[in-house]
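Milestone M4 deliverable, item 7.
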Amino acid sequence: MKVQRSFSQDNGGGHGILYLVATPIGNLEDMTFRAVRTLREVNWIAAEDTRQTRKLLTHYEIQGRLVAYHEHNIRTSGPELVSKLVLGESVALVSDAGLPAISDPGQDLVRLAIEAGIPVVPIPGANAALSALIISGLSTERFRFVGFLPRDKKRMRQSMELLVDGEDTLIIYESPHRISVTLGILLDVLGDRRIALVRELTKKFEEAARGKLSEALLLLEQRPPKGEYCIVIEGRTGPLDDGEAWWEPLTIAEHVEHYEAEHIPRKEAMKKVAVDRGVSKRDIYNQLL
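Output delivered:
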């Protein structure tokens, strides 16, 4: 075991320190005093998007030397940064928003630094996943950060099937142009669980929509999605269910008729069928033509 004492005077054996600095996820006032001081003192600031980071540095009047570190240049930029650290220069790693090394290539730089005996020090701050979780109204005792799901629908479904039996609250990131498809697959795989659909955290249009997965899908049909989303979903609360969904033996026509028998208008019945099956309304309409 190698022990790092982050505040020891002789820590690092003459090497520099890699600081992982949290940046605001929207509201610039979420920057901590320690984060600002660290960015002012380090020799280099490694940024996922230098244009975005330059805006932050300008706001706080920070004159740091900025270098790019992102998924397209990690093979070259990572070793270069480690070389600077070995020579005794300090580096602050920042992402576009929130904590670096979460859902971004920063984890690779951390690994390289540790392998080279470089101290790695966190400068905590804003985090979208935890911010969404604590306002969700769902259990915070046990949770699992899933991050971004695979883009391929089949792989997304397979990923969620591995989590269907867990009791942990799930936290997922999603973009506005994929959110409806993702929610449809989540509904199909996990069932109609409670959910918090959180968007634009700390920004002017911050919003948390709480309810069921099916209600979230209907909401997005009424109001087109905007902004980046955090999806917080409750874990399994009932016994394990190894049976099929109640509607699976039904044809699409029979599925629609089931809801119509409950005095639901045909158009709304088709919408509910689309939600159940995780497909678009147009797919249902086309099947019934």
